[in-house]
Amino acid sequence: MDERSAQHRWERRTQQPLMGLAVVFAAAYAVPIIWPDASQAVTEACEVVEWVVWGAFSLDYLVRLVLTERRGEFVRTHWLDLCAVLLPLIQPLRLLRVVATVLLVGQRARMATQIRLTTYVAGAVVALMMFGSLAVLSVERESPDGNIKSMGDAVWWSFTTMTTVGYGDHAPTTGLGRMIAVGLMLSGIALLGVVTANIAAWFIARFESDDVEERRQTAAIEALAEEVRALRAQVAALSDSSGKVPEKSRT
Amino acid sequence: MDERSAQHRWERRTQQPLMGLAVVFAAAYAVPIIWPDASQAVTEACEVVEWVVWGAFSLDYLVRLVLTERRGEFVRTHWLDLCAVLLPLIQPLRLLRVVATVLLVGQRARMATQIRLTTYVAGAVVALMMFGSLAVLSVERESPDGNIKSMGDAVWWSFTTMTTVGYGDHAPTTGLGRMIAVGLMLSGIALLGVVTANIAAWFIARFESDDVEERRQTAAIEALAEEVRALRAQVAALSDSSGKVPEKSRT
Amino acid sequence: MDERSAQHRWERRTQQPLMGLAVVFAAAYAVPIIWPDASQAVTEACEVVEWVVWGAFSLDYLVRLVLTERRGEFVRTHWLDLCAVLLPLIQPLRLLRVVATVLLVGQRARMATQIRLTTYVAGAVVALMMFGSLAVLSVERESPDGNIKSMGDAVWWSFTTMTTVGYGDHAPTTGLGRMIAVGLMLSGIALLGVVTANIAAWFIARFESDDVEERRQTAAIEALAEEVRALRAQVAALSDSSGKVPEKSRT
Amino acid sequence: MDERSAQHRWERRTQQPLMGLAVVFAAAYAVPIIWPDASQAVTEACEVVEWVVWGAFSLDYLVRLVLTERRGEFVRTHWLDLCAVLLPLIQPLRLLRVVATVLLVGQRARMATQIRLTTYVAGAVVALMMFGSLAVLSVERESPDGNIKSMGDAVWWSFTTMTTVGYGDHAPTTGLGRMIAVGLMLSGIALLGVVTANIAAWFIARFESDDVEERRQTAAIEALAEEVRALRAQVAALSDSSGKVPEKSRT
Fold it and tell me: Architecture of D116-210 per CATH?
């Protein structure tokens, strides 16, 4: 109980600094892609920042693992976090580091109970769109057949993809770019589902609030309770008049 | 209570004239775009009408602000209206004036309690489609690479966008045009959600009306009430026969 | 009551012949479009058949109007039917005749109570897709810029439109063709909504059947009824033993 | 009863070997399409494997038909399986054999009660996408106008189709390819519906769990039960004091 609370306290205290680091990571990822003519020093600094942020989230995972009571269960329910921690060590590609950090940040944000579902979904959609645009731009810019050559095109393309509009005026042509696109499409379907489900739940809640059957039930129960109360009064009167009921049994 | 009612009365009385002004605004916005060879005088008259309608809605906001009881709360809950009032003053661009007026009209229409949700959504969709088409046309017509050159193309494009079909035979190529397009796409997703949610709510309401469990419950309660009624009759008979119950305790 | 029943009897008896006529109409509409080299005689025969079927449905409307009790209400609730009857008389265009007959058939089918909702929606989607394909083909074939030149292209295009996929390899280029396309898109959105709503209603019905709260309620009521039954037995025993309760008051 | 159980036992025991055979079939179908320069021997071996797997599923259908009690009902409710068994015998085309086997595998998987709905839908979507990609590739590669020439293009195209994004950079041009595409589109709509419905059902379940009305009901019933319990105590005391109640009537 106490250890679980230690883990909980850690999670609450590190919440804000870690989210700040996530923003730093996003900037460090964006700079060399948006500004391809940046000097060697800038690019290297950005890479160091990326490794540091990934390291901070990996450390956070390890601390939570140490603080938790049931370690086996923690590893099993957070296997995706474990993959995200190990992946950049095995294959230090830039894209894998991004995927790993986005996963770690996303899992961490989902755990923060003070963040409501709608905020989480909106944040995830914006983050996916931003990282998707950047990743596709960095991949497609080098392809000779590519048609996504500027940040504007990349953002425009990711909007047409996530809303499933898909004009096709810009589309990835490389294998890696298409894999990122598939990720955005699936997120887009999930987004559509969440929007529709939200509206539907709200509509249905309004429909149900004037549910006739339920009201009739409550009325029936209340009428019945009234009946029983009257009955008790009668029985009480009966026993009073017969003068033989012990006082302690009356409530 | 009285002041809130003054605000309420104002809102009800100005509802119709303001909606009429909104139609006038739409016409004044459409004329110079659909008819680009119009004389200087016509274009200027349209601009004056636009400023007048925006002014009327700004005045309406101020009157409501004066009439309301809790001014602080009013400003906080209507911050979007405040932005819409101030925006054209800071940056007198045509597009901003349109966005501001559409926002003010939309907020005003949403407050009108006699307008039902479906009417509001349908109206919002039609208005967004119309203004979206006009705005994209005015932006894209001047772009050398643009492929939206006539009103017909613009309306057709906005339909393919809002329904998320997205053929891609016409698509905006400028940054401003694409920002308007993103607005239409998001409205299209919301439209899809509202349509689906409406149908789903109707389906579920039909499903629930023959809900077996609820009926069993009501039946159970009614049977129980019957039981208790019989019991009361017995007790009444018992007390009558014993002749000792005071009359006042019987209901 | 009797007159309403006369209308009802008419509707039930004419149901099947009218649906047969609808199929004949579809064939008569399709032949000159699919087979553009047909002789003058065939084309004229098809036109005669179209007018005859439209006439039959108009006659059906008039007979129902005569048989109904409240004529004013009938005209008001069936104003779309009235338009469909009058439209081809005012403007004898082929497309208007098609729209009129499709409307009359659709309204008639919806009234047939033995047809279930799913069947109606599926039928409406197939009919709209077929008529949409044919109408777009007949319009676009004559356009010099058109890219829908064969029946195969038209059907393929209508599938990509109704499912909101919208590849854009084929798309209408004429104003009339685009108006038909907008109709198909809106039907596609409705179709998506119906499919999703159907699945959602089924899911929710399954979720609710194992609703824990409801079961606890029923259990609570049953336990309560048990309690009351035991109480009645006690009271009965009490009154039996005191030997004074009149037999008629016991149930 | 016993025979039904025999059928049931057969279905449970053959479940895993048949699913293994389905994977073998998928491999045998994929090899000659992905590797078109394979030697004659490989192609022929793959064809033999396809016939063997189809034969195994046909045999499974016949064994279940023999083991079932009500043969007439089994044939009627499994008419799709019967078609799938007979189709490749009548017309030994490769595509028909694939459709037949996919149908038989799908029906068999749906019957396996231990597989949950979400797993079934996910499996069906992946299988449809894989077979759709392969089938379209094999059809379009031979078309001179085709633009789906590699496995990568085919998978990318099937993703853009099932998510209804539809860029149109790759699209089938032959009749057969388009028929497969329509199948994928319809599956995509169903997929969207299932995703949305799942989220909606989960949302609504959460909304309902804090349903105020229901809680008030349960509270009302519990209060009522408390009342009745007190009443029983009173009656018991009354009867005890009068000393005349037979012991057996008390619970």
Answer: Orthogonal Bundle (1.10)
